[in-house]
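Q: I'm writing up a methods section and want to include an example of the input and output format. Could you take the sequence below and give the corresponding predicted structure tokens, formatted cleanly so I can copy it straight into the document?
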Amino acid sequence: MVFTKFVEVGRVVLINYGPLCGKLATIINVVDSNRVLIDGPEETTGVKRQVINIKRITLTDIKVTIGVQARAKSLKKALADADFENKWKESALARKLEMRRKRLEMNDFDRFKVMLAKKAKAKAVKKKFQELKASA
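A: Here is the clean output for your methods example:
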């Protein structure tokens, strides 16, 4: 398995700590080995241009083609051309975060219904397996 997510200019990142937690931004420049300059742009994602520690971001698979220190206008255009919002919604990380959000919003009755559905599924799989085993 080859590593493909590098800290590089144009990489779309998810902020995973602090007041902007859960928002998307784009790496504009690499400051040093621990910090990067990111920009939302603010009109699109709500993240202003700022320096952030690499430990506070999660790299995504999405990369846009921009220059170093790209202005907000060119960044918006690059993000629109790359159709990054649809790519983000289709990514595994976005689906995982959406599932986590849904689970957090569940009440006791919803969790109870999920438990019953899992039991019914396991019972059906076990029955099908028994049928296949008996016929073989």
